[in-house]
Amino acid sequence: MSDFQAITYEVDGAICTITLDRPDVANAQDTRMIDELDAAFDIADADDDVRVVILAGNGKHWSAGHDLKALVGDTEPDEWRLMRKTPEGKWFHEKTMYFDRCLRIRDFRKPTIAQVQGKCIAAGVMLACMCDLIVASDDASFSNPVLRMTGAGVELLVEPWEMPARKAKEFLLAAETFSADDAERLGMVNRVVPRNDLATTTRELADRIALVPPATAQVVKRSINKTLDLQGQRDAYDYHFQAHHWMHNTATALDALEARQAKGSMKEVFAEHRDE
Ligand code: ZN
Q1: Domains of the chain by range and CATH?
Q2: What is the DSSP string of 173-216?
Q3: What pLDDT digit, counting tens, does each position of 133-153 carry?
């Protein structure tokens, strides 16, 4: 377990805490982190003492999303970087590493709670929403401003399931940032607490869930997820993933990608798309 570099893994009683641990880059998700998360959930699944998993983030921010810098730079494994150079490869990369890995967390047998502070952006929102419950600190904020950069959202379009459709359109099309209070009002977040109380509140909630016999909790979780599937969530996710990829391969997106790669830094790229 101590082999992990991009996350930490701890078990205390019936509660397992998996923590995103790249605070210097706002817990941007690179291949290593995504692989380690997947492995950590496998360990938590196999450990009968673990009843509830908390997904936390170390540092000021929960997650800035996918590590785009690693993708365009030279820190990602060669096989993925090279693979992403063709549309087929990019599809396979995002399907296996983003789409499938996220849904594995959504379908994880035991109840999960995301413990979110600071910024939660794009694929950060996607990851948090894979958890069954979300507890946010009062300094948390949620945004998915990728449309201005041609992205058709991220790989899973969670927004219409996390908030009313009209608010989802505002969130995505207008690149609005929603505060923790906004997110709670919309039903996307279960609780908002002061930053200093975030870990204890999440833990108390996890302890309450751990009082339910594991089999019962798992059956009910699965049944609620099945209800969402019967409302079309799984099909809508599938549809969006294909649409997202169609968008990646349009002239609109490819020209923008080329222009972006000609820029010196990611900072310059993002600067263009900010309001201020
Ligand atoms: Zn994508």
Answers
A1: 7-272 (3.90.226.10)
A2: HT-PPEEHHHHHHTTS-SEEE-GGGHHHHHHHHHHHHHTS-HHH
A3: 999 999 999 999 999 999 999
Q: What b-and-e string marks burial along 207-245, b requiring 16 or more CB atoms within 10 Å of the CB?
A: eebbeeebeebbeebeeeeeeeeeeebbebbeebbeebb
CB half-sphere exposure, 132, CA atoms < 13 A: 22
151-208 confidence digits (pLDDT tens): 999 999 999 999 999 999 999 999 999 999 999 999 999 999 999 999 999 999 999 9
Cα(99) to centroid(ligand 1), Å: 9
Residues around ligand 1, an ion, CB closer than 5 A: 94
In three-state secondary structure terms, 15 is strand
92 Cα–ligand 1 center, Å: 10
CA nearest neighbour of 37 among 8, 3, 78: 8
- Largest distance between two CA atoms of the chain: 56
Alpha carbon of 109 to ligand 1 centroid (Å): 27
Q: Tell if the pTM clears 0.90, that is, is over it.
A: yes
Please state, in angstroms and as integers, the Cα–Cα distance from residue 112 to each residue in 142, 210, 242, following that order: 19, 11, 27
